[in-house]
Amino acid sequence: MANNLDNKTICEMMENLLTGVAFLGLQEDKLEFLYMNRGGFRMLGYTPATGYKYLNNLVSLILDDDKPKFWQAIEDVLKDDGAVDLEMRTVTANGNLRWLQIRGNLYERTEERAVILCVFLDATDRKFVENELQAQSEWYQMLLKTEGEILADYNAKTDVLNLKTASAYGMESTRIEDKFISKMQAKPRKSAAEKRILEIMEEALKTPRVDMIELKTNMIKGGEDRWYRIHTSSIAGVDGYVTHVVGKVTDIHENKLLQEELRGREKLDTLTGWYNAEATREQVNQILGTSGNRDFHALILIDISDFRILGESLGEELGNRILKDITQKISKGFKRSDILGRLGEDELIVFVQNIGSVHNLDAMASMICRCAEVKLGTGEDGFTLSGRVGISVYPHQGDNWSELYMRAEKAINSLKGSGKSGYHIYDLSGILTKENAELEKQQIYDADAEENLEHMFERIIREENYNENLTRAMLKMVIRNFGFQKACLSMEGNDERPPLELRYFNPGYEPREEFSNIDEETHKWVSYLKRKDMLNGFQIIHNYDDVPEELSSYMIRNRIHTLLIQPMMLKGEVAGAFLMGECTGREWHLHASEEKELKRILQLIQMYVLANERSQSGRERLLDVALLDNFDSYVMAVDYDTYELCFANRKLLDALPDLQLGDFCYRTYGKQDRPCESCVMRKLDRNDPHAKWSEEWFSSSLRSWLKVHGSWMQNSADSATCVLNSMDISEYFLGDMGLK
């Protein structure tokens, strides 16, 4: 009977198979689909007519993470002349993910090309079952290891949170929260804990990740607020999307209160209850580090005159009682947010935030002098204590502890020289002159008050020529806006360009003397990060234990608790990095909206810094493309000779927040290790300044069919830049196929 089957009959049989069948041809490293049956097109969501139109673009439908497996299977078939089995994910015509189980073998090999036969089945349902079993297995493994803790299982598909309390004898209680995230999002007013939990959940649902947070809330058990430590782990389904978020909630309230009590005791002066000298400087530096030029603070230095003489003549115990009484009286005149500290035996300090006007200092200083005045005895045996007060003001007389303290001390010394008690404000006339000037500028400032950092930097890019001081000022605005204390932009040099090293440190966080050679130190460990392949994208490092020892050592030496790294790309290579450090030790996190804003701002600064890499005309044309920033399409600018991504508009960056300017477009946008076979840019005629080309293309990174329009933005004998404007046509594309 087999002898009676002709090729036509065999083809008809293959077309009617429910399984997918495909023939792939490989010729000079170029892969093309020679044939696919109806069953294969059906699994991918296409009709044969439409499928054959885009047959050679089908490799782009493979999920980016699975492409290496696909290419490795091709190499194995050719090398062994045998069969290979693999499972991989593809994007269907309607944008969903589908698992395919594929078996391929070498059909024939000639001098011109090799032909590979593939048979594949839809394995999506099986993968879903396996995934659910895995999620349940992980859940019950957590149960076995848990006692007296709360376990949480959030189902992303049903929006249901399941809370269970475990004990050594089994489950004690179960609580089900229906529409958990929907209800939280709908609440008009959310507590800080609710906002934090919502942020963690939203991030966990984006991609598989592990998180740990500590927060104080009454959401877990109701009643009073308690401290909890929450560990979360998200589990992805077969389609690549997160299906479950499981977690463990531990009550740490008693331990947290004990830690806070011990930590507070270490920072307090045992006699007065005010901060000790070290804690006072630390607290003031934290405030100064996050203050801007519009803030107005005062450092009030208090010297209790003749206090030592009192102690020597009347005894230390009486002196201590009097000092405690003085500080208790002074404390009543200030807010809890003000910093009160004891620097020495008879030296006190009050740091007052946002005093409003320098005239308010008169009442504060007069009150302190009254509280510090103590009369003991009468006549010749009488003894009188008095307070001398010296005041300096931020930002007029300094923006760090050392400068403000020095000037407050000079103000006190001016009183000592004349033998007077009372108070003195350092350079009062200079402050009043500056205050009047600020009032004149206020109306102008208010007109620009709504302009955020992003708009400000965009304006600078359009209006300014490149200037290192201006770039350093940008870094200063960024770290103060986002709560960092240190910032550095380190860029390697080459034969054509000297190295660039721009730094900014908030007051109190400058390098220590033994690490003053920061240029060499920073270049050294940026090179180290490159060797360790840690400059592969935007990342935030919270835990010293999660990084190599050399980087951990650097962070500890430089008092960096949280480190943000953003590589700077140039012509496809890492040329340097933005480095930002949080040094106060607080729990530092970026909200999703803040992270998106920060990435955008760093890319704007990178555009500004790299502007001098291009010719003046090319730079002007590149800046002109900012006009396309608000287009409702995906816009990018690419260097024709190097494939370097020079610009990406807001819509593209919103869709792909990890996009890297300066990297190769096919790598950062298409997630490929070689230029696209159907590169629109290569179809433009270099000899025609008005050349245009359009093509339909599937973007696996955006999971959309795009209509890509290419044209020259700048085209000269020396260099050329192409602008690619892509419109999402998935809806129309699917409509034409009858799949809408």
What would your notes on this structure say?
By secondary structure, this protein is α+β, with helices and mostly antiparallel strands. 37% of the residues lie in helices and 28% in strands. The strands form five sheets. A six-stranded antiparallel beta sheet has the order 8-7-6-11-10-9, sandwiched between helices. Strands 12, 13, 14, 15, 16 and 17 form a six-stranded mixed beta sheet that branches. Helix 10 packs across helix 11, helix 15 (453-463) runs parallel beside helix 19 and helix 16 (468-482) runs antiparallel to helix 19.
Q: How many H/I helices?
A: 23
Report the portion of residues in β strands.
25-35%
Q: Percentage of helical residues? A: 25-40%
Q: In this structure, how is the largest beta sheet organized? A: 6 strands, antiparallel
- Characterize the overall form: elongated
How many angstroms separate the termini?
A: 44 Å
